[in-house]
Structure prediction request, 667 residues.
Amino acid sequence: MDPAFLSFAILASLAGTVFAALVALLGVRAHHFAHILLAFSGAVGAVASIAFVVQDFEVLEIASVRLFFGMTFALDVFSAIFFAIVGLVSCLCSVYAIAYVRQSHEGYHIASLNAATALFVLGMQGVLLSTNVLGFMAFWELMSITSFFLVMADRKPASIKAALFYFVMTHLGAAAILTGFFVLAQGTILADFRTLAFSAQVIPAPALALTFFLFLFGFGSKAGLVPFHAWLPEAHPQAPSHISALMSGVMLKVAVYGFLRMMLFLIPSLPATFGLVIIGLGLASAIFGALYAVIERDIKRVLAFSSIENIGIIFTMIGVGAYAFANRLPGLLVVALLAAVFHCVSHALFKSGLFLAAGAIVHATGTRSLERMGGLAKRMPLLSGAFLVLALSAAALPPFGPFYGEWMFLQSLVQSLAAPTDGAVTGVLVLVLFAVVLASALAIFAMVKLFGIATLGAPRSEAAEKAVEPPASMNAPILLLALLLAWMGVFAPALVSLVGGKDLVSAANRLPAIEIVGIRPDASLVVPAAVFLGLLACLGLVFLLRRLLSDAKRERSYHTWNCGQPIDASMEYTATAFSAPIRFFFRFLLRTKNTVVAIPVVATNPWICRRELFLNLRSVWMDYGYLPIARTCLRAASIVRRVQSGSVQLYVAFIFLALLVTLVIAL
Prediction:
């Protein structure tokens, strides 16, 4: 395909996003047209970027804006993969939002919500296309500020509180990223990425270490990496569901893209210790995210903690890559990078689909509590079927795409252990292997709870009993995402080979190609088509044996018997009860407080009562990290406030002292 045509298609996608924001400002009457336009621009961008990946082009020049200090926009293989994610998910979320926002219009100002959504997508697109510091930071701020307003779109106190928390964290991260750029670019904001890649090879070791930790905090806080994650389970659930899908499915991947891009500038110069730091934070995120996903009872908070778990897996892959390269295992670096990118794509699809499905379920039941759901599989069969596929994908089970990303990574670890390596390296890889397996097992537990409690059994509320299938425009994007995950699973080796053949490492850091030795990304990869056909054969065999061997004519249906009592929803497992074993075995990590309240059946007789269990979930990071820091800042502010005496002479003295200090430093 002609590069000029691809460049025009990317520009058309950007123009369509801008035009969608302008059209949205026309008000409620333009709601449908604004989202159709945004869906079209996303589809064009996704198709163009996928076509670019398939072609043999190295870099696609998009535009150069001389009026803004020569900002240039371009696409390479690395950014094209993430641009496709943004385009595809924004397209499907826009289709979903046509009916969803209309049904939930009481709490939203539709014009500003739609305009901010389009600008949010534009910010993510601009980050991926920027090739210099100025453009990157300008669009990063656009992405951050618009998402801040989107979190509090319903203007409820809880949403405003979560949005302010997010605003503080995201701008602390942005300040760290900008400072890292200044250190790496030696004080200029106009440097391009090629200059940064060269500078990373020559700057002193202390400056390199400072840059690494600034980027780790800046991008890690945006991605939801532990311990910088506390804003994520507060902000993502409060946003409208299609915005939650964009934030968790796409925005977090843009943060991963930024960290990966910068890390690949630094990897050739980083010691192995820095890789261990990333591995440690990644494993902590994976395990704690999975644990809190298991014990959480709010459907959207479960998905938010699941995102932390998956981000932890991705950062673990990145850390293993950096550690492997420092220990002269470049093959493991490439496989870990490919696995991280593959898992980014998979997570974007299944997490976006899960948040969209959760939005439909919340709208149908009127609650986010899993304890008030149940029985939805009979009442919403299409949505529940897609929800099952998405939950199995989130659990990284075959034959869906996420399984093969994690399998490729674990397989590369085992292959590296088989080769002669240093004892310390072997110990680290074994630890990573066991920790990732533990996090994956907890993720399976969380997804079984999520799907089983929400959709199976009997309805536990009147609204759940009356739930109906959502409109086709809401169901279709969810079903399509589920089908894409199945397709990714079947064709995983071909997708890995396609991306791997482009030498992703060199495309990302603009440095000469790293020689790949030892491990091939697609070597010994489980054949997905065979697994898929094997599962179908097993299901078919069970069905056939059931038909041939059972005496169906003599079977009679009866109500389930329970010692003479009729079965009702109060006898089912709840989300709290289901997670009890995990809470018990990991009680040294989880802070939960059980409170039993006795409520008399008859007010005049306190001895005959029913008891209700209230489970208070606390975060160790909040109790021992964020809250002490907040209290310290408030005490410091109260002390500093004392100097605000209103005395002009005192203020003049402060100005004089500041001038003296400036002169001393300058001279």
